[in-house]
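Table 4 source record.
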Amino acid sequence: MKIAATYENGQIFQHFGRTEQFKVYEITDGRVTASEVVGTNGSGHGALSGVLQALGVDTLICGGIGGGAQQALAAAGIRLYGGVSGEADAAVEALLAGRLAFDPAVQCDHHGHGHAAGEGHACGSEGCGGHTCGGH
């Protein structure tokens, strides 16, 4: 199993499409056996699922992520845990222990697009993807 996290200075980077690095973790018998920080080589948004696929990643932990990127990850067979913040290493350990707090309905992107009611956007009371969505 390989888990990737959007990564910046030890933290989960909060915008999937703009991440410049992933930290990739090799998992064996439910434990991290190796990890490395990998650059995205300037790839963004849709191309990032291909970067992850080429690395052999099957699980992604990230902050905010838009619907198009979610579809690309799903098409690549990569399981998504979005809406996560904090230290990347701690998030991976929490996932392995079955106690990672994530938002299965994470939908927000950070492009400044408004979301009209009925667009399939679901926000929890804590906001989504590390930002508040403003009453929709």
